Each structure stands twice: as C-alpha cells, then as structure tokens.
C-alpha cells in the first residue's frame, strides 16, 4: 500500500527533493522507459530508503515529478475584486505562454511519451498520474480566473470546464501531438508569445461579453443612462409647459377673453363700435304709447288695446 507522501505541493519541496525530481525527468529524456527506484537513487546520488521516505513508492515519485513539471503552468496573480479586461487578457496570455513552454520542453515531451506508452501497455499508472496531476490540475488552476471574469461581466459562458477546454485547445492546437510524434517544431519565445496572444484573442471572440467589458462597459452604461435621464427630463419639461399653456388657454376661454372663442374679425368689429344700448322692457314701451296690456285674467289675450 502506498504511504502518504510528504510531497503534496510544489511549495513544500526542498532543493534536494527538487534535484531528485530533476533526475527522474533526465532519465525519462534519456529514454529510460523502465524507470526504477534504484536507477533514480543512483542518478540522484541518494539511497532508496530516502526515496521511499519522501515519495512513498514509484507511483508517488512519478506523481511528484508530474506535479513538479506542471507547477510551471500558472495564470499569474490577479485581484478578483479589481479584475478588468486588461488583467484578464494578461493572465490568460501568461498561462498560455507557460503551458506552451512546458509542453514543448524535452522533459515534458519525454514524460508524455512514456505516459502514453505505459497507458497503452498497462505497464504502470503513469498515464493516469499525468492526466490527473497535469491536464486536470492545470484546469483547476485556470477555472477560478474564468469564473471571476464571468462574475465581473468580462466573459460569458455556461460551463467553466467547457470554457477551459476551448481555451486549452486554442492554445495547444496540434502542437503537442506533433511534438509527441517526433515533429521538430521550432518553438521560440517570440513565436510562443504570438501564439498565446492569438489564442487569447480567439477566446475573447468566442466567450467575450456581447457588450463592451469592464470599466468601458460601465462607463458606457452610465453615459447612456445619463442621456436617457436628460431626454426624459426634457420631455417632462415640454409636457409640463404644454399643460401650462393649455391651462391658461382654458381659463381665458372661460372668461371669454380667448381669441379663439369667436371669429377674430367679428370680435374686433364689435369691440371697435360703441357698446349697444340695453333693451327696455316691452310693457313700459307699450304704456309710453298709451296702450294697456291686458292679461288673460282680465279678459284679454295678452295683446295691447286702446283705452277708448
């Protein structure tokens, strides 16, 4: 049964333990397929008892070696509370540069070639060790960055694993399989940087928020809201002004002073002449002519008659 390994994280490695893991990688590069504890002890100039104490057994030694190699792939430091588009782009590019540098190194190529050979022949569990502590562990390092970027509204995706696999594929393309099959690709620092930047741009094209991101997006929203509020305020003022004019018009109309209450020409004509004399009662006018108005009760019919 495998003992609990003292090497759980790369931060706990001592310089001497790092030398042992470098010896393991060197043996893999040299094509020492049948990696044994005796061969490692001889190359690292240490006893097998020390190896068993530090790493437990052969699988523990291989696991620590894979972790040691994969520890170089990181997304860099970032502030989750202040993450913006520039910081996200820089972190993704750094991750891509680190990963391309690792998979194109002779030690990584040799390690993966042996892992593939062992996985196909069931010689050891190296394939599972590389998968669990390499690809899967790297994914768990990058996913928190992707999720933080989604929270900040910088990118949009439904599943973090799917988003990571997409970015992983954009970065690696066919580089790793070609290297494993013996293609001698020229992986320069400048070329790796260009590939990392290209993969990051493509990832943003696929998963970038449909609207502008980061502070620029917030500034645009604030500006648009300000313009909308200003437009609403102008519309409200126009409405209030229109209502005020209608109110004044209604009061003038009730008072008979509204110009539109009567035809303008007739109203000006009437106001230009002297006022009309008040009409006198018809009964008084009839009495003035010597007539008497008889009511129905007096035997009349309501029409004036002469007295004689």
How does this model look, in words?
The protein has 308 residues and is mainly alpha-helical. 65% of the residues lie in helices and 2% in strands. The chain has 13 helices and two strands, in the order αααααααααααααββ. The chain has helices at 15-29, 37-44, 48-55, 58-70, 85-103, 106-121, 126-151, 160-172, 175-180, 189-207, 214-254, 264-272, 282-288; strands at residues 291-293, 304-306. Strands 1-2 form a two-stranded antiparallel sheet. The chain is rod-shaped and about 140 Å long. Residues 1-10 and 284-288 have low confidence and may be disordered.
Largest sheet: 2 strands, antiparallel
The H/E string reads HHHHHHHHHHHHHEE
Which structural category fits the helices and strands?
Answer: mainly alpha
- Radius of gyration over alpha carbons? 48 Å
Instruction: State the low-pLDDT regions, or none.
Output: 1-10, 284-288
- Estimate the global geometry from the Cα principal axes: rod-shaped
Strand content: under 5%
**Largest beta sheet: strand ordering:** 1-2
Q: Give a count of the beta strands, DSSP E runs of length 2 or more.
A: 2
Query: What distance separates the N and C termini?
Result: 155 Å
| Tally of helical runs | 13
Helix content: 55-70%
User: Would you tell me the overall average pLDDT?
Assistant: 77
